[in-house]
Model the fold of this input.
Amino acid sequence: MTAPLSVIEESWVPTQQDFDDFARLSGDDNPIHVDPTFSASTRFGRTVSHGMLLYSRVYGLLCKHWPGATHDMQSLMFPNPSYAGEELVFRLSPGADEPNSIAVEVSRKADGLVTLSGECLISGDVQ
Done:
């Protein structure tokens, strides 16, 4: 398998239906994710994505661009919220000296604020 040597960048616009579907699948039905009326009264003012919904999209990109690699570990932080209806930009940056290390960043396209930041380690034939 040939690993990408450059930055991978893809966009996605999550919907409230994505939040609701993920809540059903994961069992995490916290109202901050699924109840627009409740969320309107919070500091966010609207529903926010589950962090692991974002990471499931990252995992999909890992599988797409490194088919057959084994996902060994991830370290993640979620410094800002992601909202339904707002475009997100996903960036995966393979390490130049360490191809098994993939830097991950998700940001809101509108204002550039990072909503997921972290690193993944993969193994297998990643060259």
